[in-house]
Design goal:
The complex is a heterodimer.
Chain A (H helix, E strand, L loop, with lengths): L3 E10 L2 E11 L4 E5 L6 H9 L6 E6 L2 E2 L10 E4 L11 H11 L4 H15 L14 H13 L5 E5 L7 H18 L2 E5 L3 H7 L2 E6 L2 E6 L1 H6 L4 H6 L6 E8 L3 E4 L4 E3 L10 E6 L5 E3 L3 E10 L3 E8 L2 E8 L9 E5 L6 E3 L9 E3 L7
Parallel strand pairs in A: 3-8, 3-9, 6-7, 7-8
Antiparallel strand pairs in A: 1-2, 1-4, 4-5, 9-10, 11-12, 11-14, 12-13, 14-20, 15-19, 16-17, 16-19, 17-18, 20-21
Helix pairs in contact in A: 2-3, 2-4, 3-4
Chain B lengths: L1 H42 L3 H4 L13 H8 L1 H34 L5 H10 L5 H14 L6 H26 L3 H8 L4 H30 L2 H6 L7 H9 L8 H21 L1 H9 L6
Helix pairs in contact in B: 1-12, 4-5, 4-7, 4-9, 7-9, 8-9, 9-12, 9-13, 11-12
The chains are: A alpha+beta, B mainly alpha.
The complex binds adenosine-5'-triphosphate and magnesium ion.
Chain lengths: 361, 286
């Protein structure tokens, strides 16, 4: 177990720079999830921590040792790959024992650790099987077993669940969480599934185009997204965005001329803003922003309403059931502290101004 | 889409298609096997039966030609030479070639592909253009008529062959296997030996077999670089065929030809399982 510090790390493949100065300090025992769209550099960063990619600039520190030039085998990290990378010619027992045999651990100790891991992961009946005779979920467990027998300083996961079906993914997700709580090993977990990141991690790091867009505890990212990008990325179904011009102090004029009243009493630095509302934060009232219902999707516990507002599609999530019918005009209100206003057009690096202490819309 | 449609299609065309395929297979096999069959047949004939027109399929077989040629020490010695040279060059080229192929497949070197292509291109040079300089070099080094000379000479074309075949085999393996091994405590070399080589064994073996067959049949370099001591079977066949004084001895030619082919066939049958697996499953996923 150990801390992991990433200081201003850059990565370039030839002349193409893919990481532009990433810094991250991970506490001992912390579970950090890296999320972001495809190609944003999550795997690259993880592979640099593992020592599989050179570091173009910056430092990676595990514990109190700079590991920039340390071979992967000497970093004492364990990694679980998306395709599991089980050694096909070895049975489950040998697969899990491999890292220990490489370290010339005594046979009895290897035996003990492999059996322990097998018990924790429910792999005992499968120890003599070859990987090809295992299901996807079982392979995934073996890959985890091979990582935990090491008792490494840092665990690295690169989308370990993305090859599993939805149900198994949810099950393995809680197994990973339980495992982390039990072992308390510093973990970096890459995923493009924001739900996975939110549910597993102590801290979520949202990456975009080779930089860290925002980092923080899961609910902080949900409540206070620092940019439109993060707002769009975190939360499901995603946040609704309404773009328009500010007029008369607190009126948002949408592209088609529709005027929406915004909470009064704040200054806007720019005329062009984006207002973001999470689907679950809309409330149906007698008055408010008008929208025409197009689709109703009840799931029992909640109902998702798709509606058109000023030529734009908005999604509304209401608890329980609703009597609203398609074609009907509804009126939406949002509590002002739940309204997100993004003042910059560019998604990245923009600042958000929360209306924490403001009144109603 | 096809996965839904195919069971129906398969059932409809199943029986007929299967028969047609078997028939085609038999015909093609016959076309390829007939010359070998004829060679073996001829080798078992008395000299008088060889030239009858029309050719006979029924005759009293004799192994006289074999006995005669095996009595001559040089055929059995040549057989041993051929085995030594084929095995030596096969093994050497598989070791060097597979490592080179691995480097080309995995290690990020600038111009690796160009390098690979150049090595492959070197095979485009007509062997005859290499044979004479090779002979001169071998003579200067006092290496003519030695097994090692032929082994090294064969490596010049076997290594590129092995390298190129194994390169594409290694590329088909998921990179994460070695990366995982390297995180688990191996150096890159260790990952290659402990993970990649065992996984690639079928591919390595089939490539080894093909290399050995290529070396087994090689004539030109053997002709130029050896004369008595290290001479191989193909040289003997060429000698019999090109005997301008006595005329070609067809009985001898086909007998020695059969001796050349039989070990290859036996060997191929023995390792058939490996051969097919090596050719069929390039990627060893999971
Ligand atoms: N070997 C390489 N050579 C050149 N560019 C590369 C190489 N590996 C990755 N890249 C580039 O680096 C960027 C980041 O890749 P990376 O694999 O880290 O993305 P990712 O965030 O893991 O995406 P995904 O969610 O699809 O796995 C991509 O634009 C990719 O094209
Ligand atoms: Mg990735």
């Amino acid at each position: 177990m150990s801390t992991l510090d990433i200081h201003n790390v850059y990565k370039a493949y030839g002349s193409v720079e893919v990481l532009h100065g990433v810094s991250l300090n991970i506490k001992d025992g912390e579970f950090v999830a890296l999320v972001g769209p495809s190609g944003c550099g999550k795997s690259t960063l993880l592979r640099m921590i593992a020592g599989l990619e050179d570091i173009t600039a910056g430092d990676i520190v595990i514990g109190d040792r700079i590991v920039n030039d340390v071979a992967p085998k000497n970093r004492n990290v364990a990694m679980v790959f998306q395709n599991y990378a089980l050694y096909p010619h070895m049975n489950v027992r040998d697969n899990m024992g491999f890292p220990l045999r490489q370290r010339r651990m005594p046979k009895a100790e290897i035996e003990r650790r492999v059996n322990d891991a097998a018990r924790i992961l429910g792999l005992e009946p499968l120890l003599e099987r070859k990987p090809r005779a295992l299901s996807g979920g079982q392979r995934q467990r073996v890959a985890m077993g091979r990582a935990i027998v090491r008792e490494p300083n840092v665990f690295l996961f690169d989308e370990p669940l993305s090859n599993l079906d939805a149900k198994l993914r949810v099950q393995m997700r809680s197994e990973i969480k339980e495992l982390h709580q039990r072992l308390g090993i510093t973990t970096v977990y890459v995923t493009h599934d924001q739900i996975e990141a939110m549910t597993l991690a102590d801290r979520v790091v949202v990456m975009n185009g080779g930089i860290i867009e925002q980092e923080g505890p899961p609910l902080e990212l949900y409540d206070k997204p620092a940019s439109r990008f993060v707002a769009a990325f975190i939360g499901s179904p995603p946040m609704n965005f309404l773009e328009g011009e500010i007029a008369d102090g607190a009126v948002l004029v949408l592209a088609d001329g529709t005027r929406l009243q915004l909470p009064a009493g704040r200054q806007y630095r720019r005329a062009h803003v984006t207002v973001g509302v999470r689907p679950e934060h809309f409330e149906l009232h007698e008055t408010g922003w008008p929208a025409t219902v197009s689709v109703i999707e009840p799931t029992g516990s909640e109902t998702q309403i798709t509606a058109r507002m000023a030529g734009q599609i908005v999604r509304i999530l209401v608890r329980g059931r609703t009597l609203v019918m398609p074609g009907e005009v509804i009126h939406l209100q949002v509590r002002s502290e739940l309204l997100h206003i993004f003042e910059d057009e560019v998604a990245r690096g923009s600042r958000v101004l929360h209306l924490q202490e403001k009144q109603y819309a | 889409m096809t996965s839904i449609a195919s069971p129906i299609l398969k059932r409809r065309s199943g029986r007929l298609g299967h028969k047609v395929r078997i028939a085609a297979g038999v015909i093609v096999s016959l076309i390829f096997l007939f010359p070998i069959y004829w060679m073996v047949l001829t080798s078992l004939k008395q000299p008088v039966d060889i030239f009858t027109t029309p050719p006979t399929f029924f005759f009293e077989p004799t192994i006289a030609t074999y006995v005669e040629y095996f009595r001559r020490a040089d055929i059995s010695r040549r057989l041993i030479n051929t085995i030594i040279v084929a095995a030596g060059s096969g093994v050497l080229s598989i070791i060097v070639g597979s490592m080179a192929g691995y480097a080309l497949a995995r290690v990020r070197i600038r111009g690796a592909t160009t390098m690979g292509l150049l090595i492959l291109l070197s095979r485009g040079v007509p062997p005859i253009a290499l044979a004479v300089p090779m002979f001169l070099v071998a003579r200067k080094l006092g290496l003519t008529d030695k097994h090692i000379t032929l082994i090294l000479a064969y490596c010049t074309f076997l290594i590129p062959y092995v390298m190129w075949l194994m390169r594409s085999f290694f590329i088909s393996l998921p990179r994460e296997l070695e990366e995982s091994a390297m995180i688990d405590g191996c150096s890159r070399y260790g990952a290659f030996l402990k993970i990649i080589v065992p996984i690639s064994l079928p591919g390595l073996l089939s490539t080894l077999i093909f290399s050995m067959i290529l070396a087994w049949e090689e004539l030109l370099f053997a002709l130029v670089l050896t004369n008595r001591y290290a001479s191989t079977i193909p040289v003997a066949i060429a000698g019999i065929a090109g005997d301008t004084i006595n005329g070609a001895n067809w009985g001898a030619l086909t007998a020695v030809g059969t001796i050349t082919v039989v070990p290859v066939v036996i060997f191929a049958l023995l390792v058939q399982k490996w051969l097919i697996r090596g050719l069929a499953d390039g990627a060893t996923k999971g």
